[in-house]
Amino acid sequence: MRNDKEKALKLRLTGKSYTEIAQVLKIPKSTLSTWFKNLQLSKIASDRLNDKTKKGALKGLLKRNALQTKLAHAKAKKIRSAAMLEIGRLSNRELLLIGAALYWGEGHKRAIMKNGVARSYHPVSLSNSDPKLVAIFLEFLRKVCKIEENRLKAGLRIYQHQNPEQLLQFWSKLTKIPKERFEKFYYGVSKSTLNKRPYNVLPYGTIQVRIGDTATFHKIMGWIEGIAN
């Protein structure tokens, strides 16, 4: 028997794979497969080889999954970037439709009740935790509804683990509403405390933008009805 074949046989009988033997002895795996295609391995060697095969397959699967995930993220980023460019600059009509739709979904629309009677006045009030959504709604109020700056007010709902001054600074800068026109801080029990959502899913708390303007409220509601019909 060839010296290299004898060495290969000894390694194979210990449960070494063709890849491992090829790396050690520099023998092509095709040659090893020909030499040992009828070789019967002991149970220990066979189990060891099967275990390595399973681990190799798992490693390969994890590597493929990681690559597929990376490719999926890259594809999603490309799609989003292309879609973003399709929007371009918003016209006033588009901003009107967006603002009305935001109020339809997120704004306070129920009648104001006092002593069981619906009041005739109604503020424009929208609450949300998404800074970008709030920013575009304020653009709608300023550009489409022509709301004067000194009429815009806000309130914050935050949680015990959050810093009130930092959040006030953040929202005041984003909304361009001066700090003195932030009326209230509401403290709530976060749903993370109740194990209903991750701990810091609302890192900025929730802001309520409010304007005491019944006519503007009814105008927005009319736009909503126009969209609906």
Head-to-tail CA distance between termini: 90 Å
- Helical content stands at 55-70%
- Would you tell me the overall average pLDDT? 85
Radius of gyration: 33 Å
Number of strands: 6
Q: Give a quick account of the main beta sheet: strands, pairing sense, barrel closure.
A: 4 strands, mixed
Strand content: 5-15%
Task: Point out poorly predicted stretches.
Answer: none
Please tally the helical runs, counting DSSP H or I stretches of 4 or more residues. Answer: 8
Query: For the largest beta sheet, what order do the strands appear in spatially?
Result: 3-6-4-5
Shape: elongated
Structural class by secondary-structure content = alpha+beta
Write down the secondary-structure element order: HHHHHEEEHEHEEH
Describe this structure in words.
Helix content is 55%, strand content 13%. With 229 residues, the chain is of the alpha+beta class. β1 and β2 (117-118) form a beta hairpin. α5 packs across α6 (131-144) and α5 (92-106) crosses α8 (214-228). The longest helix is centred in the N-terminal third of the chain and has 45 residues, at 43-87. The protein is elongated, with a radius of gyration of 33 Å.
Name some characteristics of this structure.
229 residues; two-stranded antiparallel sheet; 13% strand
Question: Can you summarize this structure?
Answer:
With 229 residues, the chain is α+β, with helices and mostly antiparallel strands.
